[in-house]
Amino acid sequence: MSIWEAYALDKDIRFRGSSGGTLTALNEWLLASGQIDSVVVAAASESSPEKTESSAVRTRSDIVRATGSRYAPTANAAAADVDNPASAVVGKPCEISALRALAKSRDQRSPLLLSFFCAGVPSQHATNSLIHELGVDDGADLAALRYRGHGWPGDFYVEDTRGNSARTSYDVSWGQHLGPAVQQRCKLCPDGVGESADISAGDFWRADSDGYPDFTDQDGLSVLIARTRRGEEIIRRAAEEGVIAVRAIDPDAVAAVQPFQVVRRATLLGRMVGSRLAGHPTPRYRGFRLRRLSMRSPLRTLRAMAGTFRRARRW
Ligand SMILES: Cc1cc2nc3c(=O)[nH]c(=O)nc-3n(C[C@H](O)[C@H](O)[C@H](O)COP(=O)(O)OP(=O)(O)OC[C@H]3O[C@@H](n4cnc5c(N)ncnc54)[C@H](O)[C@@H]3O)c2cc1C
After folding, report:
1. Is 211 a residue whose pLDDT tops 70?
2. Is the C-beta atom of 127 inside 6 A of ligand 1?
3. Fold adopted by 2-119+189-259
4. What's the confidence (pLDDT) of residue 206?
5. Is the pLDDT of residue 145 over 70?
6. Could you tell me which of 28, 66, 152, 280 has the fewest CB atoms within 10 Å of its CB?
7. Where do the CATH 3.40.640 domains begin and end in the chain?
């Protein structure tokens, strides 16, 4: 329906947010104004913050506690109240697509579905080994762990109950540890941009001329995509009521700073063929125009096919 550059006008939420704090600001306003009665979020476990837990929350403080991305497995869809259209769910594109399909199959109105751009979910082992590498696992329990936020993109930060802490940049944590540990199934996923959501959020990176994001710390900025009328109405009203700042942008401006998402869609057919040639079953997708996209970048698609075939023979 429409695409926006956006950020939370509450400075604290913007600061804590993964990018512009937009999902948290929307959730908080939707709850406070009675438009939803609960929202499913993912947050650090209070007892073991290296783990991530999904739950339906009903208070501002729980919504704000769940601000920021958790680059580890967790199941928000499983905590959703699918029979309650007055609830909301934040979830990965795969979770939101499942919930949308479930509501459609039952011919019922779904909860409000909020998603985000997703490059895939890293294994929990990647978090554990990064903690180990940072030297904060000498027996004391952890008191806090966040993947980013507190600035944009913000550092991976871990602290134990004795007050020892360590941090490393997003470039290192995602680029060297978490990104390479993305689960195999995510590499065959056609939707990194929350196609089935009412609203989808991503990083509106500032990028160099090749599209590589500039990771120097700055004030967070999101891209918000309204994919349904319900989503668009929420964005417009939230902007009118001073919850988020928005500026309409061109879809090409988003593609320019999200080269990973563009290439992964364009070359997905290659990875699927490579996987199938190596003897693995692959999902069937309709409506993503994968054949047409692959013909636009044949060399890249062939390279993706060969690489997947080589790796898939070892699975
Ligand atoms: C696994 C993963 C991969 C991502 N890959 C990309 C990418 O390739 N490109 C990109 O632009 N952005 C990506 N993001 C999204 C990005 O980091 C921000 O979440 C998005 O820009 C929204 O920012 P925000 O400040 O508006 O959200 P915030 O206000 O910080 O809110 C984030 C919301 O997401 C929920 N959440 C956090 N982690 C999870 C999780 N694992 N599962 C379900 N819900 C969760 C939180 O509970 C919170 O409600 C990814 C996020 C995750 C979790």
Report:
1. no
2. no
3. Aspartate Aminotransferase; domain 2 (3.40.640)
4. 82
5. yes
6. 280
7. 2-119+189-259
